[in-house]
Amino acid sequence: MRSIAKLMKDWQFTGPNGVTTAVELPHTWNARDGQDGGNDYWRGCCTYCTRFAAPVYDPAQQQVWLQFEGVNASAAVLLNGQQLCTHDGGYSTFRAEVTELLQAENQLTVRVDNSVNDRIYPQKADFTFYGGIYRDVSLLVVNKNHIALGHFGDTGVKITPALQENSADIQVETLVEGSGTVTVELLDAEGRTVAKGEGENTSLHLDAPHLWSGIKDPYLYTCVVRLLQDGQPVDEVTTRVGLRSFSVDAKKGFFLNGRPYPLHGVSRHQDRKGLGNAITREMHDEDMALIRELGANTVRLAHYQHDQYFYDLCDQYGMVVWAEIPYISEHLPNGRENTISQMKELIHQNYNHPSIVCWGVSNEITISTKDKADMLDNHRVLNELCHKMDPTRLTTLACYAMCGPFNPVAHITDLVSWNLYLGWYVPGLFLNDLWMNFFHLVYPNRPLGFSEYGAEGMPNLHSAHPRRGDHTEEYQAKYHEYMLKCFDRHPWLWATHVWNMFDFAADARDQGGEPGMNHKGLVTFDRKTKKDSFYLYKAWWSEENFVHICSKRFTDRTEKEIEVKVYSNQNSVALYADGKKLAEQTGEHIFRFRVPLHGKVELKAVAGDCIDTASFCSVATPNPSYKLVKTKSKSANWV
Fold it and tell me: Last residue of some domain: 542, 575, 606?
């Protein structure tokens, strides 16, 4: 049976300055300069070296493989001075067999390159392309006869469920390197065997299957595939299986297992403050916990392949996933092969995840494209490739705001969504309604979604009169209040994804807010502060009882009377001022109270058994830590 050993410690890193230092994986050399603005973070080639003893293995009966789960963006791997492999694409798993090159003591060298080039995606986008070995590196010891390790970085097992009215047939295809007999066993969530099969291509039948039904009931079976030699197991792969069906209707939205299932959720970037993409499993867990607290039921995993562990979490917690490759912002004529190889790896490595319902072909590709004909042909090739590799899922893409409804790129994939920031980058929140209505009128049979929408909001910036572009927490909340009501008016959208769940680094950004950062997140980059907009979405989507007083960081006020806004998913909220009941309101999601302000007031919001508190203080002049931001109003706003 296979064994795995991690190679995460005792690496020597030679960085941009030529100095060699000791590091541990995961690691990136852009953790700081990729988050400080200026678009000047270092992109080039750096070297990682480590020494390791050969694992215990029998060279006559076993093989040793080296596995990398994420090296950005290109890697050249050498073992004991000989090149093992190269890999282009910073977000997927790749492997190489090392058996014949192993010595008692070994030197592993990885040359990692995130240089600017015209052939490997991404090259132009609103996020930082961190260089480094930022996911796990492992040594795998397997029998020379084993379930395939050399097939596009996947598990060697492909599982395709097909549902009937009250039964399921599950096709299990196993790719074997070597020889042997394959057996397949399906276990329910309690570990009981519910179906068995034999052969490299076998079908399991299941009566009255328990379906994977999103966040309410993400039921998972376990498929155990074994390779036998002389009746004895020599290799094994275990895969979780979710049985579900889905469809999209342009007039009725998304359906899961034959029932309407409106998709409302978020997009996610994986990076962290001070760490870049070099994050731990505990951080993935924290991200998922925050997304679940929000009440989201779908995640767009932008703009690249995410860690397998996070796809597993999406399976486990019932998140419907849009998975995509980083074919983004600019079509590169020399990058066609890279789009194809990254798409093949994305599909092969993620085929078995029940959470994934669509493959994203590109994002905002019309922003900077000179060869339009080649770009369109590249999209057709990718769309056909997805359908050939995986006829069970849909294809989609995200269009740039300035890509009009009639642009042919918007009509290649099965589904389409738009990245629209109407009310943020351009004035007029009402334009969102007009845009949706126009598209739906012209293309009533074309499923439409919102793949990105949002506004910058910083927890240290505030205004009593928030305006578009001021980066205040208050305007961000105002923007999202409108968008949630707008989506309620257009229930036929196939999916909506907030941009973004978390603030993230975009080193090219220097205007507004903090240089090098995109502050459209509902939660701050360090995951420590939930902005008011987070609680707005929780009021709309979550079933966890709560109440939240908004703008509680905006404590010092110059007004004699202030509006206090409260978010809750309860239908009644009472507000107390200095222990006395001020008012009680019934309604939905958003509750507004007028509060006289003389000196300091202590507020308490009560909704059912939920309580939140805040304090505000009347001052002659604003808090000196606030900034003065000029707006179109007659007076300036202190923020």
Answer: 542
